[in-house]
Description:
By secondary structure, chain A is mainly alpha-helical. Helices cover 53% and strands 6% of the residues of chain A. Chain A has a two-stranded antiparallel sheet.
Amino acid sequence: MFSRACEYAIKIMIYIAANEQEGKRTGLKEVTEAISSPEAFTAKILQQLVKNDLLLSFRGPSGGFILNDKKEIRLHDIVVAIDGTHLLNDCILGLNECSSANPCPVHDKFLLVKNQLTESLLSTRVNDEALLKGKNSLKN
Amino acid sequence: MFSRACEYAIKIMIYIAANEQEGKRTGLKEVTEAISSPEAFTAKILQQLVKNDLLLSFRGPSGGFILNDKKEIRLHDIVVAIDGTHLLNDCILGLNECSSANPCPVHDKFLLVKNQLTESLLSTRVNDEALLKGKNSLKN
DNA sequence: TTAATTTCGGACAAATTTATCCTTAATTAG
DNA sequence: CTAATTAAGGATAAATTTGTCCGAAATTAA
Ligand code: SF4
Ligand code: SF4
């Protein structure tokens, strides 16, 4: 469904959000440990999240990452930042044009799925209580 | 969502099913033309569909492919044949364990999406009237 | 029987994604 | 100021997916 990078990104953001709830800034090594991800690859993803204004970064000792909480960050923001809008906007069959007027064979069924997915991603924020609770089940 | 190979596979199956409705057997070149896919790659996918008992193949002049209609083929069968069960069974976040007892952060929201996707794939058959109608919108 | 057609299947190549390595830049603490 | 720490970022490598090439095997038609 999502790229592996995006899976990591979601875990990263949930972990950092939970940490922040306790007033803690989160470093690369800590989050890598917490979600069991390859360190250097995780660093790249963190950079992308910073570039997309979802995180703020600080260098040096006691540096790390915090949420850019000007916005209440939704899972949707994370997925779009890492995987782009293809999953959510493009045709499930990879067709170029999609008109509800002249729908392709599987139009109706998949519109439902896609709408529900989009709605789920839009309505879930990384600082939702349910997500923060699960901070410790992000390994494996 | 699906791999490109799987997108092709779905188009292939819809096209062959529609052709069969008119009593026609379908060849590699014809289906490649009909869905605008790379020929050699399409051949591989056709082989996989044969191996998975979704298609029957015939060599030689006037050869080609027809549905193995011992079963009424569902989109679910195609997706599983090409992409496996990962999309439908595995954790959306890539976690190893998934227990509803001790659910991960995003359990509830995504269970809905996954169930609806699975249900859509299970309930749609390639010989559904709606799909056959769209035979000509598979290009692009 | 011969030639043409069509699928089969292995090897290979290109493109993309995932992951690693290493140097530089910024920041902090002593 | 110096040394330690941490993120930034470029180059590269490994793995996977996508796509190509070509000869072999089967079948049909003449
Ligand atoms: S309506 Fe058809 S063409 Fe459009 S996104 Fe859905 S499956 Fe694709
Ligand atoms: S409940 Fe959590 S662990 Fe299980 S599939 Fe859903 S997101 Fe993944």
